[in-house]
Amino acid sequence: MVLKERNFTEQDCHLYIISLVSKMPNLFCQMVKKMILILLTVIIITYCIHPGRFAHYYTFIKEEDMVHELEESPLAQKLSETSGLPLCPWHILNESSYSLLYPKKNVTQCDLNELSVKLDIKLGGTWKPSNCVSRFDVAIVVPYRNRQTQLEIFLLYMHSFLQKQMINYRILIIEQVEKKDFNRAKLLNIGYIEALKLFPYHCFIFHDVDLIPQKQNNIYACTHQPRHMSSSLNTFRYNLPYRGLFGGAVAILKSQFELVNGFSNMFFGWGGEDDDFQSRINHKGLSICRFSPRVSRYVMLTHSKELPSETRFSNLLAGKNRYDVDGINTLVYTVRNSTFKPLYTWILVDI
Ligand code: BGC
Ligand code: MN
């Protein structure tokens, strides 16, 4: 069979163009409709997953009010009188600049070795100002397992950060032996008890090792109410996911920690223990507070996401009946090693 070659005449061409042009408004309309649909979907999804969608309902302490909220150590005034040294000044609270944008990630052993000499850090990772009396005696308790690189970045960064704030502090790393699932809350309870064996700290900061504070005026001291310090976190796009969040880095007075019976010891695996702690605080008539998001900025050092514990919700629910019978008053553990390292107090525990 021989196919006849069809001639594409000028007329055909005109007809084709006319038909295309006549369809154009239709095509254009469909395209615009599709784009609007895609845009709407993106907006809805972004809104739903955006952690800060309720942010305007939250209350924060303004920068100028921070100074009135701080709780000074009951020892400071007396020590100032007996030693003849003045109390340390407050000027760090006006230091609203970034202390850094991102911490130094490639920390060498040399950096760490130099640090204790350069910053005059005492064995066990403790320091206090030498020409004034610190207003704050603070134990910084870090629950730990298997995060060597993060720990090095944290230590290199935190010592100089804390010294600029003129805090009398100690960094305690509470490491859980391999075996059971990680129990962050129980490690924090242990850190509390162990720190008090070393010094009568009046303020405790419970701090994840992967969190780096970015603002120098985010003072590592306690406020009248327990304070959620890391409320403006890069991984949450610097927004607070929900009002009751009390994880990451928090500051609480010794007396308040006693009152709420510390953390629950029953949360194994990731999640829930901080929510339970927040409920304990509310249950005793206290309420958590936060500094302005401009102050509470943190970056989280990258790590793979933990798998949430399957029992965290049932644990949370059951936890409500356990506040007085599960906590620092029922804490049982064995210390496997306790060493004053150059940059921190290391306590290895079997829980
Ligand atoms: C968990 C908390 C955690 C928070 C933020 C919640 O679902 O229960 O433990 O701190 O998410 O990641
Ligand atoms: Mn983390």
Automatic annotation (TrEMBL):
Q: Which GO terms describe its cellular component?
A: Golgi apparatus; membrane
**This protein's record includes keyword Transmembrane helix:** yes
Q: What is a biological process (GO) this protein takes part in? A: carbohydrate metabolic process
The membrane-topology field of this record reads:
Single-pass type II membrane protein
What are the residue boundaries of the Galactosyltransferase C-terminal domain, all occurrences included?
227-303
Localisation per UniProt entry: Membrane
Sequence intervals crossing the membrane: 31-49
Q: What is its EC number?
A: 2.4.1.-
Q: Which cofactor does it need?
A: Mn(2+)
Pathway assigned to this chain's UniProt record: Protein modification; protein glycosylation
Sorted alphabetically, the keyword list is:
Glycoprotein, Glycosyltransferase, Manganese, Membrane, Metal-binding, Signal-anchor, Transferase, Transmembrane, Transmembrane helix
Q: Which GO terms describe its molecular function?
A: galactosyltransferase activity; metal ion binding; N-acetyl-beta-glucosaminyl-derivative 4-beta-N-acetylgalactosaminyltransferase activity
The domain of life is: Eukaryota
InterPro entries, A to Z: Galactosyl_T, Galactosyl_T_C, Galactosyl_T_N, Nucleotide-diphossugar_trans
Q: In what residue span(s) does the Galactosyltransferase N-terminal domain sit? A: 118-223
The similarity annotation says: Belongs to the glycosyltransferase 7 family.
- Spell out the PANTHER family in the cross-references: BETA-1,4-GALACTOSYLTRANSFERASE (PTHR19300), BETA-1,4-N-ACETYLGALACTOSAMINYLTRANSFERASE (PTHR19300:SF48)
Reported function: Catalyzes the transfer of galactose onto proteins or lipids.
Q: Specify the protein name.
A: Beta-1,4-N-acetylgalactosaminyltransferase
Organism in which the protein naturally occurs: Gryllus longicercus
What taxonomic lineage is listed for the species of origin?
Eukaryota, Metazoa, Ecdysozoa, Arthropoda, Hexapoda
